[in-house]
Amino acid sequence: MTRNLYTCLLYLLLPFTPLKLLWRGRKQPEYLAHWRERYGFYHLAVQQPVIWLHCVSVGETRAAEPLVKALLGQYPQHQLLLTHTTPTGRATSEQLFGTRVTRVYLPYDVPFAVNRFLKYFSPSIGILMETELWFNLIAGCQQRNIPLVLANARLSEKSALGYQKLGKVLTEGLQSLSKIGAQTEADAGRLKQLGAQEINITGNIKFDVAPQKEAYDLAKQLRTQLGVNLGAGRPVFLAGSTRDGEEALIIEAVRQANIPHLLSIIVPRHPQRFDEVAELLRKSNLAFLRRSNLSQTNCEAKDLNSVSYLLGDSMGEMFTYYATCDAAFIGGSLLPFGGQNLIEACSMGKPVLIGPHTFNFEEAAQMAVIAGAACRVQNVTELAQTLQSLFNQDEQRQAMGEASLQFSERNRGATEKTLNLIKAYI
Length: 426
Prior knowledge:
Elements (H helix, E strand, L loop, with lengths): L2 H11 L3 H11 L22 E5 L3 H6 L1 H10 L4 E6 L2 H11 L4 E4 L5 H11 L3 E5 L5 H9 L4 E6 L3 H8 L3 H9 L2 E4 L2 H9 L5 E3 L13 H12 L9 E7 L3 H12 L5 E6 L5 H10 L4 E3 L5 H6 L7 E3 L6 H7 L2 E4 L12 H5 L4 E3 L7 H9 L3 E3 L3 H13 L1 H17 L3 H9 L4
Parallel strand pairs: 1-2, 1-4, 2-3, 4-5, 5-6, 6-7, 8-9, 8-12, 9-11, 10-11, 12-13, 13-14
Helix pairs in contact: 4-20, 6-7, 7-9, 11-15, 12-18
């Protein structure tokens, strides 16, 4: 595929983008806000040289937190611009950084919109997080002599096979990047096979993400609220970042495990699914509370002895949920979604359980298993058996928690390496 053909295909799809935004806006009205930005129209003041960092959604934005804070500290004379693709990514940016950064949507990858974006902000440098390859955007930066770095880059075998089909447009795009900071040797190898040249191994910035200061206090408060009239030591199991279809499997695993007084917390990956999961719990005749409704008044009004599930329907509280639990399952891995980030759970010193499908985070998952920080289960039955084992054996659970902390600490330092990679261009 050439870039001209790629661009023609995008122009054919462009008339349908308003319909896509309207459709998504039915469940998530935030998609209807700031829609002009997706076509390259902006109205923000640009008063300083711009460092531009692209973070697609929640995961990339959270992963970028150490890098954003380092850039803010090291380059106070610059304006830091974060671009996003999803409303949840934008909301996460607001939660984490407030007014310290400027945030907009990245435009669709058609030349007129890309050119408007680059002309309006004229960034000193662009930094793309993980695997965001938009070929007209890359070409536009090259034409304007804007350095463009792919940071914290990861590329699974499955994604590499998909990208390989793009042929020439992919090779040209990769070779037009100023630098690539790959998470692992395996990621670097796959990128080289696709034509990338300027590659350094920088590690995974997600290991440098620190929990919010208030996470432990909020977790203590949450455990106190949920422990009213339940006695000390109620076991807490967390299923975090679950994907469509996994919640029913989690419920079945918990049923099979049959752990006395177990409190299970389910936190869906996508906020638009909160109501759907609540309905599943309701139809399953399971007594549950929603985090968004949990208050001291609610606690007094309900018999918490009968509550066995908490639905985590809040944003920006994953560290709080991890601090609250005694063991955590990482969603997206029981069904073939590729898995979600397990590093946050490890950094909180929790035993981690993962399913068989972790191709999005394969190396980190394998390293965690080898380190004794994580345990891989193949199905619902194995998940139930592992939960029984963990909650019946305190020493095993504590050993896994300590291994998680050590695993997390050993792999820090990617932020500094990434800063060294990009500082020559600022």
